[in-house]
Write a structure and sequence with these properties.
homodimer; 150 residues; mainly alpha; two-stranded antiparallel ribbon; 53% helix; DNA-binding; WH_DNA-bd_sf (chains A, B); Tscrpt_reg_Rrf2 (chains A, B)
DNA sequence: ACTTTAATCTATAAATATTGTAAACTTTGT
DNA sequence: ACAAAGTTTACAATATTTATAGATTAAAGT
């Protein structure tokens, strides 16, 4: 389950992917545009900064900007930074693997082997999509709808 | 994230898939064999019964058994019964869809469109695997290891 | 220098979900 | 009647999520 933190964080990243390169966006503006509690977003952007996804500038004319072009940022890694591993269960994680305390023999644990497959499926989607592509999802969809007229 | 409830429930279902057809298994035995708190498992099996996945019999000689052959039970539906929708976010669910309160225009929400893809990927794995196949995962793996000698 | 702007840090609180435990109750077989 | 085993209800201890408040720091403009 994606927490609101990750949801808000992703929305903020998409927002930042939409500002002209070199320019910054204010937390207050991002919050207002996406219906996110401002103080909560403060904390989220702080984490994203610590994780190296965004840069910030204080004072007048300050704000946030992406640290790298959106094409070079994987959606999966944004989610990992905010919500932790993609795997449904820790013992199925490839990035932050941890053994189960219950579980006699890992290699014969059907639940784990099943969830490894689920993890791979999730990672295959989220790690192969860049922030730029994710942003385009909405634009493409909008365009398609306008053409078809639905 | 899969909760312990779902994890325990899946382990119990795999356990039940392993008993001879027509026979029952005791909660106490399932709990002991899988390192699950007995009282917690009581509650979990109760939910699985209410959801129609297992049948139970009270009194001496009682216990639990699968309601249908394991080949006819989808892993995704077991998870849904215990942890709710597979989708990482409610507005991306196909079985229990619910609109986001924040979110001006759903069809232009990049987060939702991204998570719909994630949901589809997860469902593609979990819904196409039966309880029987899930159980075989562990057996196959075990056999492979014994042959290779690792 | 002073003021305003805007991010940053620390602390904390409210709400919710998870993970269990305890005790009383019901059904079934012997 | 008795014992075995699932059922129901209630509750409690954590842990996590979702924020909010206030003080602080840094930068820019005047």
């Amino acid at each position: 389950m994606l927490t609101k933190k990750a949801k808000y964080g992703l929305k903020a990243m998409v927002h930042l992917a939409g500002v002209r390169p070199g320019e910054t966006a204010l937390v207050a503006d991002i919050a207002a545009a996406n219906q996110i509690p401002k103080k909560f977003l403060d904390a989220i952007l702080g984490e994203l900064r610590n994780a190296g996804f965004v840069h910030s500038k204080k004072g007048k004319g300050g704000g946030y900007m992406l640290a790298r072009p959106p094409a070079d940022i994987g959606v999966g890694n944004i989610v990992r930074a905010l919500d932790g591993p993609l795997a449904p269960i820790q013992c199925a994680s490839k990035t932050v693997y941890r053994r189960c305390d219950d579980c006699v023999d890992e290699n014969r644990c059907a639940v784990r082997l099943m969830m490894v497959r689920a993890r791979d499926a999730i990672a295959d989607v989220l790690d192969k999509t860049s922030l730029e592509q994710m942003r385009e999802l909405s634009l493409e969809d909008k365009a398609a709808r306008l053409v078809v007229g639905t």
